[in-house]
Hints:
Transposase Inhibitor Protein From Tn5, Chain A, domain 1
Amino acid sequence: xxxxxxQQEFRFKGQGRREIVARFDGGTITSDGGAVLLAEAEExxxxxxxxxxxxxxxxxxxxxxxxxxxxxxxxxxxxxxxYEDLTxxxxxxxxxxxxxxxxxxxxxxxxxxxxxxxxxxxxxxxVDRYKKLALDTQAVDRLLVDxxxxxxDEAPERIVIDLDATDFAxxxxxxxxxxxxxxxxxxxxxxxxxxxxxxxxxxxxxSNIDASAGALDELVPIVERVRARWPKTxxxxxxxxxxxxxEIMAWCEAHDVDYVLGIARNSRLLEMINYELGxxxxxxxxxxxxxxxxxxxxxxxLDTWSRSRRVIAKAEYLADKENPRFVVTSLxxxxxxxxxxxxxxxxxxxxxxxxxxxxQLDLFADRVSARTMRANQVRLYFASVAYTLMHxxxxxGLAGTELENAQCGTIRLRLLKIGAQxxxxxxxxxVAMSQAFPLQDLFATTLANVRARAAPAG
Length: 458
């Protein structure tokens, strides 16, 4: 039996004798009219469709109301549109536009509720009597790299692979919870791998580990997949001092992969740049402005490195203190002097922080409230696929526009959140968007740009 919801009225002061009365009785109206652009990006990239294929479905076909592809599309679109919780879908399930974009042949059909979507997140590694959905995590990892490889028509001369770790705060008794002293709370310590704005890997990890733990396990298959597609492309690995480990550097050197890694300062390194620090201090005293000098060192640790390596040192003096920094690199003199390698190559890794923030703040990657780590990893995959779809829209549709460098939250607010009335006829789903929408020209340009791209083969 359908539950009748008591209609509330909200009264506001108007102008003159007319007051303003608001009610939730507008009928088939959506606040997400711009989601049709996401569906068009999906049509050209098939990101969510291929993600759904990574699930093994052993449910009885005659009892299935929502296919895995429909469930995945509903959940990913929900994240892209700003609906972070599964409970939101108990209301969204009646949205005819979301139903049409999720693949329902009849937009008036009811979508999945929170319980059904939860079963998708709780899918196991193998199906059994009680769990009929299983996710192949390695297939998802390959998909993220494949989407990146498909983004370029020609092999680039060089790509830069960035590694970084961040924290996902934990507020319950989830599996694998540990207190991290640096972040000062219980958290997970996920590993992210990006190439520019392309997400290549998002791996959930416990926080009682070294920041570099498992990084090489993720890096190796990524490099192999890139090399299989682009055998002549040079690869540079870039990361902060948390990843300056012998096994990573030795593997890169053995496989013709360059690296630029931060290195923690120590007394030996500081002694080696004592002259440059003194000169920077003298320059600051003369100009009262921050001064920096660069130099190169041949350096080897006492017992952890297998060989001497090229270290770039920045001797900087700020208002009241020294600020030395060091990076170790396999790049040669042909790739640039000390200043170029530090300022133009290494420091550019800071943009990866913006990509991680997009995942956490805009697409809710840090919503890790499920009991098991595997379920939270699946949640992270959904957020990762949502980011990949949003980035596809940005890359394909917004290039050359005012939003070409916009973050996911800005794209959602400016281009996807459009009020629209939905009308369903025999042959069409009519989406009547607001006449007052100020970015109508940008909407048309974005759609034309996306449609100009051919869909991937296969």
